[in-house]
Specification:
Length: 78
């Protein structure tokens, strides 16, 4: 895929990385406080993570955050 197409997803990569860091903090030092999340609600936050992840074409999906890892975050909420 061309660099132009990859560049068009640059903000999405950055945002997804930010949302993932929020989740790591939420489950760690954030003590499961919704105030530590960008969307300030864990269910909404996870839905946005899934939506953003799904927006990438298969060949550009981030290797550093898989659907399996997202499912693990969801399981921790339960």
């Amino acid at each position: 895929m061309s660099n132009d197409i990859e560049k068009s997803f640059e903000f999405s990569y950055l945002m997804l990385g930010r949302l993932q860091k929020d989740l790591d903090y939420y489950f760690g030092n954030g003590k499961r406080s919704d105030k530590t999340l960008y969307y300030q609600d864990i269910n909404e936050h996870l839905e946005e993570v899934k939506k953003l992840h799904a927006s990438f074409p298969d060949d550009l999906k981030p290797e550093w955050l898989t659907l399996e890892q997202i499912a693990e975050y969801e399981e921790k909420v339960l």
